[in-house]
Design goal:
β11, α13 (294-302) and β12 (308-311) form a beta-alpha-beta unit. The chain has helices at 30-35, 37-50, 54-60, 63-67, 69-91, 106-113, 119-139, 152-166, 187-199, 223-231, 254-264, 271-280, 294-302, 314-327; strands at residues 5-6, 14-18, 94-95, 99-102, 142-148, 170-177, 180-186, 204-207, 242-243, 250-251, 285-289, 308-311. 50% of the residues lie in helices and 16% in strands. The radius of gyration is 19 Å and the shape is globular. It is an alpha/beta fold and 328 residues long. The protein has a 4-stranded parallel β-sheet, with helices on both faces. The protein has a 4-stranded antiparallel β-sheet with strand order 6-7-5-8. Strands 1-3 form a two-stranded parallel ribbon. It contains 14 helices and 12 strands.
């Protein structure tokens, strides 16, 4: 389904954002499907591509099944593209953004929206990504924790010190905003960094409900198989620059995109820097396509003055449509 943009519109200051794992919730996508034919068709396509009732799992499945990363990742991609297509259906054309960014797995949603990869390939990729990550979690148990109120550079130094002293793995996986980072690594590494972070002034350390050390070297054994999977898909030039998680730089070239997706399995998510890159490119407002409003909340920590529009249902879409009319 083509998703045309409006070039040269007065809303060129838009950034389009796509959430990642942690934004899922049972019932996500239902309101969009009730509002939009395009959203319903997106779920039907996802069910067909994956040969499983993904739409039913999201609408009425158990929280445990939806939280299984093998299901979570394609489900989040599907709900983001359902929101994207519903917005396109409502507006006819979408304003051309300065760029797009997706948080962790959300980078795949951004690449589908930018027409660098097809929706079908995106679903297959994140399904396999989830399978490999789950396998690594079983083989090399790890954990993740959010650290609040500590400077990112101080936390990086602490992680490096603990890793060297304990000969274990721990690093900053997500630099989300000035007062929130996420660490990832072995059980011992994350526990020790969490303990020392508290003593060094961190306001809070919150263990995340995961048993996978995403965006850390514990994912390394899966890298060859992941790269082989990436090499099998066709990647086109992105119609709109997509900011890479691991570099915080705009990507459009197919091979640069392939390299980024390969590195992303182990590399950290430079979300705060990515948002600064988008603002440097001229972004003055953001739109979040998908489940929840996590990225909207993070952006308000980075820049409170930037308008943000999470799109989860028909009312959200119409609210954004009304705002767009005031800008034209």
């Amino acid at each position: 389904m083509p998703m045309p943009f409006i070039p040269g519109s007065r809303t060129e200051g838009l950034a389009y954002l796509f959430p990642g794992q942690g934004s899922q919730t049972v019932g996500m996508g239902v309101a969009l499907s009730e509002f939009s034919t395009a959203a319903r068709e997106t779920w039907a396509e996802a069910d067909s591509v994956l040969a499983m009732p993904l739409s039913r799992l999201c609408a009425e499945g158990s929280g445990a099944d939806l939280a299984d990363t093998v299901n979570t990742q394609p489900a989040l991609l599907a709900v983001s593209i359902a929101a994207w297509r519903a917005a396109t259906e409502l507006l006819g054309q979408l304003p051309t953004p300065v760029g797009m960014a997706g948080h962790s797995m959300g980078e795949f949603s951004a690449l589908v929206a930018a027409e660098a990869i097809t929706f079908a390939d995106g679903l297959r990729l994140v399904r396999e990504r989830g399978r490999l990550m789950k396998e690594m979690g079983d083989r090399c148990p790890g954990r993740m924790a959010a650290v609040l109120g500590m400077k990112a550079q101080d936390l990086r130094v602490l992680c490096a010190q603990v890793a060297a002293e304990t000969r274990t793995v721990v690093q900053v996986a997500n630099d989300n905003h000035p007062t929130q980072q996420v660490i990832s690594g072995t059980l011992q590494g994350v526990e020790e960094v969490s303990r020392q972070a508290r003593s060094q002034g961190a306001q809070r350390v919150l263990p995340l409900a995961v048993s996978i050390a995403a965006h850390s070297p514990l994912m390394a054994p899966a890298s060859p198989r992941w790269q082989a999977t990436l090499n099998q898909i066709s990647i086109s030039p992105a119609r709109v620059p997509v900011i890479g998680n691991t570099t915080a730089q705009p990507l459009a070239d197919p091979e640069a995109i392939r390299t980024e997706l390969g590195a992303q399995l182990e590399g950290g998510v430079l979300w705060r820097d990515s948002m600064c890159t988008l603002q440097g490119m001229g972004a003055t407002a953001a739109v979040e396509f998908g489940s929840g409003s996590v990225l909207t909340g993070i952006q308000r920590k980075i820049d409170r003055k930037m308008p943000c529009f999470p799109l989860q249902n028909g009312e959200d879409l119409q609210r954004w449509q009304s705002w767009l009319r005031t800008q034209s």
